[in-house]
């Protein structure tokens, strides 16, 4: 059974990619991830805009999530229109043309005693 769930706009108010990591790459590279679920019947066209404390927003970064699939998108891997800066606080707004669900996670491996956090993004619409 395919069910339409989610929203078309999400916000993650907290973002920060540590500038260094501890452990084997790429598994233990410090990172931020948007886990995007598209449970619908159409491919989701997703646009991400980043907001900063002391400069203009950057974006949109554009990705697709096929129908009835999930995509775990590392912010570290976003390059176009600009790489996401390290050691810089930011927030993100994630918009899609179909309803999606967004969860946020971070791996901070600056120390060997790493920290992992995960939280749901805020549904805007």
Automatic annotation (TrEMBL):
Pfam families: ASRT. It comes from the Bacteria. InterPro entries: ASRT (IPR009794), TM1070-like_sf (IPR036698). SUPFAM superfamilies: Hypothetical protein TM1070. This is Sensory rhodopsin transducer. It comes from Pistricoccus aurantiacus.
């Amino acid at each position: 059974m395919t069910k339409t769930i989610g929203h078309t706009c999400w916000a993650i108010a907290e973002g920060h990619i540590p500038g260094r990591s501890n452990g084997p790459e790429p598994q233990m590279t410090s990172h931020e991830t948007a886990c995007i679920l598209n449970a619908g019947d159409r491919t989701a066209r997703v646009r991400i805009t980043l907001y900063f404390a002391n400069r203009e927003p950057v974006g949109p970064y554009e990705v697709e999530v096929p129908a009835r699939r999930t995509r775990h998108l590392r912010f570290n891997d976003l390059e176009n229109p600009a790489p996401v800066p390290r050691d810089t606080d930011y927030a993100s707004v994630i918009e899609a043309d179909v309803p999606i669900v967004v969860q946020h996670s971070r791996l901070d491996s600056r120390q060997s005693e790493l920290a992992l956090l995960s939280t749901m993004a805020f549904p805007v619409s």
